[in-house]
Design brief:
430 residues, alpha/beta, TIM Barrel, 2 domains, eight-stranded mixed β-sheet, 8 strands, 52% helix
Length: 430
Amino acid sequence: MMGDGNKNKRKKKKRGGAKRRMTAEQTSALKSVNEWVFMAEQSINNEGDELKEKYDDFLPESMYRARVSEKVVFELHTHSICSDGFLTPSALVEKAHQNGVKVLALTDHDTMSGIPEALEAAYRFGIKIIPGVEISSVFSTRQVVQNDLESEEPVHILAYYSSCGPARFEEFDQFLTSIRDGRFLRAKTMLSKLNNLKKPVKWENLMKIAGNGVAPGRLHVARALLEAGHVEDLKQAFDRYLYDGGPAYSKGSEPPAEEAVEMVCKTGGIAVLAHPWALKNPLPVVKRLKEAGLHGIEVYRSDGKLAVYSDYADAYGLIKLGGSDYHGRGGRAESPLGSVNLPVLSAYDFLKIARPIWCNAIRETLEQYIKDPSELNLKHITRFGIKRVTANTCEKNIINICLRLWLTSEEMQHSDFRDTMLKLTEILLH
């Protein structure tokens, strides 16, 4: 009997032992995070059945049944077929749901075109979507080297926005469009170099792999090389030809990293340095981008926290985030979707910094509509918001529903927001 008891104890220990109790700080942070994640449900429940009926066309039944979770899984770095991923935005959201993700950021390279589809899918599964994008940029060392050229390396900036999306949308969209146009020119240069290396790839095949309207990246070129039989796998394509400075590598028209960070800040986003472990010398990058307005740095990966980048975050007052960088290509080399264990305190710190910035961006977008209540400016409000707007839904109800899903009553009552709400009410009543 005693032997069986010891055996059970050993089994329990092997499984990880007793669950570690949360500290008071962690409990408070979890409560705050849950309130944000399930804000839509709380807004509906607080207003009763009458308002719930108004939401029926916009939110799934699962949202009404949502419950506070003891663990909220954040997945803050993912890609779809709108850039270099293998899954559609809808399939990505469904996969995230299957993996227990509650908050998903779609961060395609230099485009936000997949966000509306991701939001539509998210409504079905009760997942919270953070509209995001991963911006391609370059960092110059500003040191004169041979031939009087600056030393440069690619730097990627993750941008996270409110459900309303970027403020000053046209300016931000043009910024991304310029980068995407440069990716087409860059791809043509890479194919020319590959042809000189006797590894020809046809442009039409590359465009077919990339997909309609998608700016091709190195992963698309690697897949084209694989399909043409020039390499055995994607890793070999990068190792032999496409690595930074490799024989088929080419730069695009990426902006300076500082400019990318400043643009994110200017348009109401949270700017985070992606995968700093890929940089040759990350410390100068972190230091200079902090001066430009950088908010955070990726520290957490599927294999845990990387201490050196956590130290950078502490030294420069940056929030510590992380994501799987999921592309859906499969294989053991890729981290599963939702596999990064982001601590609740990190999620709380992220939202504590992000929410006031997002509120200001929403307010700026509303002010633009107040100055010019046009259909275009209404579209800016609903672009990344509610997609299932019926023909009979008036502008007032559309905006009210969006605001109730995006903001707490406290946020809408804030002095900075109250004047905007009063002006908006006057516009909507006329």
